[in-house]
Write a structure and sequence with these properties.
alpha+beta
Length: 272
């Protein structure tokens, strides 16, 4: 049976009518050839997300229905690493360069993560491939972290009700708090993606975009541009999504810089 890639992507997003969702569910249960096409559709969907090609509606479904497991978060990271590796023209020049399409198809061969109601697990072989490439590519750790931080923050964070599935870390700048206390959070209690809500002065220009830089124990980890401020009942706040994979036990500092590069706010929290 001919499978429509667009329809399969909408199925993975949960953006189809119930009868059409049930139809594909049944085909999966019966071992239909749709399984192979869903593998490719899943990888293509993640590629579209990384490239910023999803519509606003599908982006919301991506975060609420698709990006619901640690495995899929890891898959985004692995495909991002593969892309970085493929673009590195100077690394091991004597070896023939692998076309990006081959790398993407390789990723698709090793992953089957459909709706939770249909599937229970996937093959984790690509994890080893990703780790190997990471160790070979000089500086790949920093580059992949930057890419992941930027990619996950392409989501529209205006409507809090649509991102309520994430753990929330609410922070007040030391300058606003007027004290030296620090918020503590247990890593085991946090979801794989964390929403940071940072109290911000209400008089700021709501159209200004900021840069956020995160440090652990004084060591720079990553940064992201284009951070917006949002209105809340008490004033304004900045919102960021942070992968839990960034966090190990320790003290973290978030610095917020304006377009000129000047620091305007700083926030701290402790993970244990």
């Amino acid at each position: 049976m001919q499978n429509d890639p667009k329809k399969l992507k909408l199925y993975l997003l949960g953006n189809l009518s119930e009868d059409k969702m049930a139809e594909i569910d049944q085909r999966l249960i019966e071992g239909d050839s749709v399984v192979e096409d869903l593998r490719l559709a899943e990888t293509e969907l993640i590629e579209e997300f990384i490239e910023g090609g999803l519509s606003e509606e599908n982006l919301q479904f991506f975060h609420s229905n698709f990006l619901i497991s640690p495995e899929r978060v890891s898959m985004i990271r692995e495909i991002s690493l593969l892309r970085i590796f493929a673009r590195n023209q100077s690394f091991q020049k004597k070896r023939p360069e692998l076309p990006e399409s081959i790398l993407v198809k390789t990723a698709a061969m090793f992953r089957v993560y459909f709706r939770p109601i249909v599937t229970a697990a996937g093959v984790l072989t690509l994890v080893f491939v990703g780790v190997t490439l990471w160790s070979l590519f000089s500086g790949g750790s920093d580059a992949s972290r930057e890419l992941e931080f930027a990619t996950i923050n392409k989501a529209d964070l205006n409507d809090i009700s649509k991102i309520g599935q994430y753990s929330t870390i609410n922070l007040i700048s030391g300058g606003l708090r007027g004290g030296n206390s620090i918020n503590r959070y247990e890593s085991s209690q946090l979801t794989e993606t964390i929403l940071l809500r940072l109290a911000f002065p209400s008089q700021v220009n709501d159209s200004t975009l900021y840069m956020a830089r995160i440090f652990r124990g004084g060591q720079f980890l990553s940064s992201v541009d284009g951070v917006s401020s949002y209105q809340n009942p008490n004033g304004r706040e900045l919102r960021l999504l942070l992968p839990k994979s960034f966090l190990v036990d320790g003290v973290y500092r978030l610095e917020i810089n304006d377009p000129s590069g000047a620091e305007v706010m700083a926030y701290s929290f402790l993970i244990d």
